[in-house]
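@channel sequence for tomorrow's demo:
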Amino acid sequence: MLNAQPISAPSEAIVAGEIVGSAFVIEKNVTIGCNCSIFSTKVKGKPLTELFAVKIEKDSIHQSVLNNEKLVIQSIKNSKHYAKIIESGRHKQSNYIVTQFLGPNLRDLALRQHQNTLTLQALMKFAYQAIEALQALHSAGFVHGAVNAKNFLIGYSKETVDNFYLIDFSTCIPYNYSDTTREFDLLGIMKIVQEYYSKEGLHASQNSQQFLPPEFQEFSQAIYQLTPKAIPDYSSLLQILIKTSMLLRNQDHVD
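structure tokens (generated this afternoon):
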């Protein structure tokens, strides 16, 4: 049974066992941020069912981060790379949303590995899904603005553990055709690959290709050749990754 003890949060104290929204019982704090806190929760009366995440935001004179997240996610159609919003509303004096519960982020996954790096196969898988996620976001009319390893999480359940989810929409804005921010989002993917392929890549600049694995050269060149105002050819980027991944598998069979 949960103890009714206050849990630190940016808004009013949240108590374990407290009910948020229609029937979501707070279990424990997952993380505390500047604008909101995330708690694990389950549906009241169903303690053995799946976990959900409750994000609770403090009131602010600024635009609501959670309202922005809700707007962005609801604008995205047919993508498996964004956590589903189950419910939203007001709790006490704060905005809240209930979403799927997600697993660790890409950075945490890398820190569990030898030398804190990831295999080529893992990076290929990540890059492919990251392109899919950004294609859906850009097609909905937004740019992310904070593409980094902390903002890509894997699923929590057996069914979703192989899927990457893009989070954190605090810097997400509508784009216009006079900026180059879509390209910056895509360059963020290359920076992540660079960081987690080798320890040296962690300290390289985003525009450097020095520490990229050779298998990513064609992919990186296609991204660096993107021009302002042009719509990125996401299909071509995905095809490059498919081709390279097949070559890697064939090499493994030969070896």
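heads up for whoever presents: The radius of gyration is 20 Å.
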